[in-house]
Fold these 3 entries.
Entry 1:
Amino acid sequence: MGRTRHDRFDCSPGCAVEATLSLIDGKWKGVVLYHLMSGTLRFNEIRRKLPNVTQRMLTNQLRELEADGLITRTVFAQVPPRVDYDLSERGRTLEPVILALKVWGDANMPSAGSAAA
Amino acid sequence: MGRTRHDRFDCSPGCAVEATLSLIDGKWKGVVLYHLMSGTLRFNEIRRKLPNVTQRMLTNQLRELEADGLITRTVFAQVPPRVDYDLSERGRTLEPVILALKVWGDANMPSAGSAAA
DNA sequence: TCCAATGGTACCCTTTTCGACACTATGAGC
DNA sequence: GCTCATAGTGTCGAAAAGGGTACCATTGGA
């Protein structure tokens, strides 16, 4: 059944590439990680940066990123509810990866031009 | 319907990350690109480097990579059939990305340790 | 004629991914 | 009581992704 997230990748050279990809390849994950690189964001702040994401999808992807140890989710005891998301220490080590992806996309993909974050 | 490959990514900053990911996130693509970084490989050579890939899946992913302009497929007029695969010029620009993914996987994913290619 | 090597293709199935839509919970303020 | 803001959750369906299995085509050599 496909490339299950967290498959063991003890097969052959190069599998580390697939292992890393399995953590970041869900829709919206890459761009979420990119935005979190610049600091803490609340749920709705992330959501407003992604024009077409549904609440449901965003919640799910954030939960997976958290489960994989790439981001941290801080719940505040307040009303209205407040939840902050940050890159974890581990997530921060992904910055070269995310930046490499962005640099390549900016240079090579039509319509992927980026404006100021 | 999911993140269709080649979606226009003219929405917001950071979309370039997703755009790039959409090209390389099919199962086996990352590791195929990694192996092609070291030079031309024939279909069966690639296949033997990936212990659990089916012929069908490998063919499909190679065809997609070719369609996206990341690899070149050279057919030789001979029997038995011979088809060589290489990174395209465009594909070569992805090397920093693939290497970043591999470096991160090697350092951070259990069981993703790599041996000599 | 049969077998081998190579690189496929056809048909079908299962699972996963993603999104639409509706609904929920909390306290604060009016 | 009602509305608001925030961050969700539940249910379902469509499409995509991935894979299994069988079969195919070609020439060369035994």
Note: The domain at 15-99 of chain A is CATH 1.10.10.10 (Arc Repressor Mutant, subunit A).
Entry 2:
Amino acid sequence: MSVDIKKVAEKAGVSIATVSRVFSNSDLVRQPTKDKVLKVSKELNYIPNPIARSLSRQLTDTIGVVLPDLVGEFFMDIIHGIDEEAYKQNWFVLVSSSHSKRNILETLIEFMGSGRVDGVILMVPQIDERIHEIIRRSKRPIVLINAGGDTNSSANFKIDNFQGAYNIVEHLIKKHNYKKVGLVEGPKDNYDAIDRSNGYLKALQKYGLNKNGSMITTGDFSVESGYHGFKKLISNKVKPDAVFMANDMMAVGAYQAAKEMDIRIPENIAVVGFDDIYLSQFLHPRLTTVHVPIVELGSKSVIHLLEMVSNKKKKNKPFTEILPTSLVIGRSCGCK
Amino acid sequence: MSVDIKKVAEKAGVSIATVSRVFSNSDLVRQPTKDKVLKVSKELNYIPNPIARSLSRQLTDTIGVVLPDLVGEFFMDIIHGIDEEAYKQNWFVLVSSSHSKRNILETLIEFMGSGRVDGVILMVPQIDERIHEIIRRSKRPIVLINAGGDTNSSANFKIDNFQGAYNIVEHLIKKHNYKKVGLVEGPKDNYDAIDRSNGYLKALQKYGLNKNGSMITTGDFSVESGYHGFKKLISNKVKPDAVFMANDMMAVGAYQAAKEMDIRIPENIAVVGFDDIYLSQFLHPRLTTVHVPIVELGSKSVIHLLEMVSNKKKKNKPFTEILPTSLVIGRSCGCK
DNA sequence: CTGAAAGCGCTTACAG
DNA sequence: CTGAAAGCGCTTACAG
């Protein structure tokens, strides 16, 4: 610090314009001049001030990340993917999340309205008219991650919940020949949960298993709700021979319930989950589940956002990419 | 955007100086003037440009966070604590981590040398002379988190690994009366691991248990090394009746080994860990371990850093705070 | 290929 | 209490 472009120019015997050009890699500078400037800069330990640069160029080389929360591996992986990709492209990452005291919308508006970032990656459970409004009016691009609601007029990256659920239920039916597959679904108002339930239903239908209402119960993605949901299903008159827990946390609850009731997985009943959380590999037996590419979700969002920033992608052209999931086979489904 | 201080000044019939003063809450402005400016600003949707503000004030209201990695709950909690506290105080957070391609030192230098942040929270496994050099020469304050090595000349926040280990081993000895307490320690060059080993040794000494070399083996904090370390200890001539795994991940390995060998925890042997990772509450039996206040580590660092930034704390006055841990009692130690 | 100068949008000492 | 003006450290169209 303290050493600025003027000092360098002076010492190198050139104008500040030339110094500036050297550092922005302009090809308007002759090699000898460039060498001299670079040499002096090294001696003086000069680093161009990014703030001044930002003010002048009206660009910050920084992307904002707005998340609903900063807890759990999901968000860690997202940030990880974003940071890694941003770094590759020489960008900075400003993070922000909502807390009790903070409102996502406010943060978003602050980010967008100020010159602090050139674009934003936004993750909200559901996009509503106010968010659409912000996206529409904003000069800076926004990429949405896993947003529910009407995403037809924005840039989106999502996880293929439907297909993931379909695949794992199909695995239960086709590979293991289970006829009575139960479901403990997620919250009714959660888009991920809804898509997973639909994938489940689609698989049942495809294989001609009739959809038995009593084989489905609703949880809230928590361990406890998985515990109770599982207990409820197996106390029905018609017991399922396999249960799809709509996320791994609920599957953990199912394991606890099974242990308590001396029910063996998968000998007495198969259990599968969704998310492939870190914990799931340590369950006994290892949980069969659906892997979701979270890190990739983060990095792809960055790539797309930066293309929008540089106008390689039109910022108001709607776009949606749905990232495929993959099956993680453990022993809990009956596989060896 | 696009609406700047000039437009507001014009429309409100004042100078830009006055508008500026209103937004920096100067008490040099009469209430009616202030009201008028605020009203016009609202109408025009004016938000002061933070970049211009930063350039002029030579302050960014942003802190940089440099972490060794962006994986795992530990780092998530750190960021969580930092973000929450920074937000409370109206600051922004720029994160950066090292990857394969990135070097921490480089990132740090870039952060410090540019005007991009007003201070940095740095987490490095070990601080060496080059980092001391940077801290010494930097105009902007740096707070170190959990750094090993010579931290006597910097500001530091750490976890009390020694006392935590001492306490949990004491619990094994005093509460449960175990006489042969084994240890699977962490890497020899890891400061956390060393302190934990020392806490263990101190407890043995305090209670007059002789330190039996064959009761100690070295792991690397991974699940696998815990698995092997545990097996090694129980295949000794003298079997331990309790084992302190120096972190929870290794404890997970111990559980796997025990399950495989049909050894029951805690009936046949007690097992305890360190870290209180999320997973540990789902182990059967629930793992007795040491909780470390990571979120608090992050938030305290921010508080201290901001005091340094505002010169309430002298930036070159060495400072170290060691945060206490707490015991988390599960059934794995023998407690009900 | 290089330089002088205007401009990015603020803050703040100075003068009144 | 308020304003004119210099300054923060760059970039870049313009002129040569």
Note: The first strand of chain B starts at residue 62 and ends at 67.
Entry 3:
Amino acid sequence: MDEASGPKEGNVVLAILVGAPGSGKSTFCEEVMRSSTRPWLRVCQDTIGNGKAGSKAQCLNSAAKALKDGKSVFIDRCNLVKEQRSEFIKLGVGPEIDVHAVVLDLPAKLCISRSVKRSGHEGNLQGGKAAAVVNRMLQNKELPKLSEGFNRITFCQSESDVKDAVKTYGTLGPLDNLPHGCFGQKNPDSKIQVGIMKFLKKTTVPVDTASREKGIGNSTSQIPGKNDSCCKDIENNSSIPNDTKLESEKVEGRAIDYAGSYANQVSLDDTLTLAFPSISTADFQFNHEKAADIIVEKVAEFSNKFENARLVLVDLTHKSKILALVKTKVAEKNIDTRKFFTHVGDITRLYSTGGLRCNVIANAANWRLKPGGGGVNAAIFNAAGPELESATKEKVKSLSPGNAVVVPLPSSSPLFTREGVTHVIHVLGPNMNPQRPNCLNNDYNKGCKILQDAYTSLFEGFVSIVRNQAEKPVENNVNLERKSLEFQDQSEGCSRNNVTNTDQKSKRDADHGSEKNKKYKGAQDGSELTFTDSRDQKVDSEHRRNDGGISKVWGSWAQALHQIAMHPEKHKDDLLEISEDVVVLNDMFPKAKKHLLVLARTRGLDCLADIQNEHLEILKKLHAVGLKWAKKFLNENASLVFRLGYHSAPSMRQLHLHVISQDFESKHLKNKKHWNSFNTAFFRDSVDVIDDISNHGKATLKDDDKLLSMELRCNKCRSAHPNIPRLKLHISNCQSPFPSYLLQNGRLVSASEDTL
DNA sequence: GTTCTAGAAC
DNA sequence: GTTCTAGAAC
């Protein structure tokens, strides 16, 4: 504790609150202001924008003005990181201003439960995401130090500490000053960090090994039990109020306490888990052998798409045939058993009775998304209470086979509170039971496709949750909101694609600017589409399939090629060739003298990521047609050189082969992304894609954004150029031969080859 | 995918 | 002044 230095008379106070969402910053300010006799201004980034998201600059201005007017100021934003505080501290430079920090360093659990509960709060941090966000923020927290420029720091680590601080500030009259120095801190920073690291190492490792060892060999997986209970014990300790003064023993205790809450985040946050039942194999009587193949195939496809997440196939009994089949098949594949394993247990009680923490569970739903029936559907609706029914109903009324819908579970649901389930994903698989609607009469061609789609939708729904939770730590309230918006965007995309993500209703209701509402509108529109288009029932699930992980969202502008491929007769005038399985057209914005697109007409084949073994023929067909046109152009102009290939991550939906001359002489080639999309590994040569599929059954993608923002290099001599005009100038004159890589395997098509 | 805009960077 | 970037809108 620092020695108090001599306070001056009646300084204005600039009090910077430090605390996670839900730590009680706003309440603190309000309570102080209610009883205080000195003029205070609370500067809150959430409210300063008058309905819109506020900016840090607005806060700074507002605070500066108030200080100038002699008012004391509360900076009511999270300020968990030193950098976020620094500019506010600068406002307090000068002898008449005391810069204070009030640190609301309450248990993460408390902040989370408050954040989850609140609905009308200005910060608009909502529901299940709140937990993840608070955790993320706390992970990056840097407790303030006097050296940052504070005169006084008050640490509150319990609610009674907060009460004391309210009293201290509430009774601070206009002529009073508070002593300088640090107050209330019970745990020096460095020790906590060591404690955390030790603790994390101890706890995370067993999680992994347990699942690796037991996941496959033993049908009853027992994963987080040990360390979770360990965390729980420690948390219980931490809830004992500790008001005693600093002693070395207490410091240690406190350190473990912190470590406990951090470790808890690891199991809760870092290993997101989807538990799912086998779809369609029970009441829908789908062939188990075939279903097991599909499960393993889809798990293999998705399991390497995420780092800290895992999939768990759950069935009630050790005798489960489908579990046995999947276990056998999965053992033959090279699937990371930390990412996928089977588990015997009740899907509605995985945590409470099995110790398996699954924040997402899948429901084998019926098409009306109604409770009842039997099996998993009845069990989940029962266990989740009416909350799930209403949350589901709020967004969608029905589900067609092969689709899934993500429903965030209201925090009041028993499944949420007891089992830690934050999302339920309803999935509807194909039905082979003549007693049930939409029976496929043993048509396993259709059935397998639908079941594949169902798992794709399910896993993509999960991936969208994982992705969202894996967002980088947020920096302040503004960013926090942006992240939420991004998530809404994502869910919009999902809903358009039948993986509907019902976001929290209260978010919409909260008066928070038009921007958000506009976006939400989009989401609603999208979800309407989902269930009205009966003729193209499968379009939605199919056009979403991409690299298997990230839900690819196709904007409205990205649909043009798809429309052409589906209905070429409507665009006859713009097309060079129409056949049963391909369409050829000039690129609307050619990036070279000659630039064609050869579209696959296969429904659901949107990009390279969608390609599987079965598409080899269409790839060859696209290549052959592209080659034919290239040669045709070469006949007209022998100086051209063509390259045929695909973009790793196309912007336009519907698989299209680019046939492009290598002059890149075009006014439409305007930016780095244009150039790099044709001249880096992002561009996948058609011949290589065909090899990939022949050899590995899937296409290699190089869809890193870095490739598209790489330095501009000549496609012949590889020299670098500072900007597009200079590059264009260079390539128009470069006489170098093409790099040898391109000269191999027929990657380039030129007149000389044509004559062979 | 494109266009437009504003602001930053050079 | 030009180029780049990011965001929004389409």
Note: Residues 555, 557-558, 560-561, 588-589, 650-652, 668, 670 of chain A lie near DNA strand B (CB under 10 Å from a C1').
